[in-house]
Amino acid sequence: MPSVLITGTNRGIGLELVRQYLTEGWQVYATARDPENSTELQQLLTDHPNLLHIYPLDVTDNEQRLSLAEHLKGIPLDILINNAGVYGQYDAYFGNTDEDMWLDAFRINTIAPMKLMELLVNNIALGDMKIIASMSSKMGSMDDNGSGGSYVYRSTKAALNAIMVSAARDLKSSGISSIILHPGWVRTDMGGPNGEINTKESAERLRAILASVSIENSGNFYDIDGSIIPW
């Protein structure tokens, strides 16, 4: 039975990924900062008690990260999806960047995925698919930046991309693929009401991309349609 660990599952794309993988009969390990107060996540647990495993996790909390790794010790994971993330400072335009908010966003968007990869890489090595995926954004692409601004979000995602490419190189000998995903402009709390697709469409396309990943395309930066985003 295939297995996946997804962070940031209390709502949005993370929650929908949990729902869809459960529907396909996967073992799903889901984390959220406050899972007890996520009504939809708790309902999924009621509906799939033998498939869904939920863990409280603030991805920036090292003690919670270590606790999660201890709970999962020896358990094979086919896919790790670093989904938890924040936009950070929304008004981070030139001349108006807040250092503390910037550092908080880096801890969540960039450092936490790295630390989780380091802690769970042995679980991934035990799995069959051996995939680590991180949710990034086209806004982390230098080539795609035609409007400027958004210094905090852009920089944290660009740094995440660099980490994932380095991981692709470092983990290749272990047969582990490291890929970067752009989920599309999705109608979520972060994406806003004018997004081009909903969470169901995004999750379906993301799962299709993950199903096609092999060690040969490790390090790729995927758009939601499966094409490659330039750096």
Core attributes:
single chain, 231 residues, alpha/beta, Rossmann fold, 7-stranded parallel sheet, 6 helices, 7 strands, 41% helix, globular
Write the layout of secondary structure elements.
Layout: E1 3-6, H1 12-23, E2 27-32, H2 39-47, E3 52-56, H3 62-71, E4 79-82, H4 99-126, E5 131-135, H5 151-171, E6 177-181, H6 199-212, E7 221-222
Parallel strand pairs: 1-2, 1-4, 2-3, 4-5, 5-6, 6-7
Helix pairs in contact: 1-6, 4-5
Backbone CA Rg: 17 Å
Return the CATH class. Answer: Alpha Beta
CATH superfamily: NAD(P)-binding Rossmann-like Domain
Distance between the termini: 35 Å
Low-confidence stretches: none
CATH fold-level label: Rossmann fold
What's the number of extended β-strand segments? 7
Main β sheet profile: 7 strands, parallel
Strand order of the largest sheet: 3-2-1-4-5-6-7
- Integer tally of domains: 1
Strand content: 5-15%
Principal-axes geometry comes out as globular
Give the SSE string.
EHEHEHEHEHEHE
Q: Helical proportion?
A: 40-55%
Proper CATH architecture = 3-Layer(aba) Sandwich
Give your account of this protein's structure:
With 231 residues, the protein is α/β, with parallel strands linked by helices. The protein has one domain: 3-Layer(aba) Sandwich (Rossmann fold), CATH 3.40.50.720. Helix content is 41%, strand content 13%. The protein contains six helices and seven strands, in the order E-H-E-H-E-H-E-H-E-H-E-H-E. The chain has a seven-stranded parallel β-sheet, sandwiched between helices. Strand 2, helix 2 and strand 3 form a beta-alpha-beta unit. Helix 1 packs across helix 6 and helix 4 packs parallel to helix 5. The chain is globular, with a radius of gyration of 17 Å. It starts with a strand and ends in a 9-residue tail after the last strand.
